[in-house]
Task: structure prediction
Amino acid sequence: MAALCHPALRSLRAPMGYALERCADEAAAVAVGDRRVAARAIGRAALAARAAEEVEGRPRVALAATAGRVPRRIAALLGRATPRPRVGRAAAAALLACLALSGAAALDATHDLHSSIEVAQGESPQH
Result:
């Protein structure tokens, strides 16, 4: 949500989304008790989603068989080494700093709005 609202965080959207999907994949593998079953389910869900996107027998997007998010997620579940995007500590610190700054700005704006409403109503603003 923050990546949609704040331009500085937009570059983190894809890596954070992938990391979230991987966390969900690992949780599913633990819940099922079999990493291969979880990997097959992810692959089948991706194929079903792709089939649902087809319009008049033509796919809107042709995905590569060995590249992309889903094959990387499956390879990671099956224990194959795959390069994956890393969100470092600096990026996490930047995200937290932006969230704190955005929260402080929202609180300040709320206070200013409240003061402006009091002035408009003819009351003296309280500090």
Summary: Helices lie at 2-5, 13-32, 35-53, 69-77, 89-120.
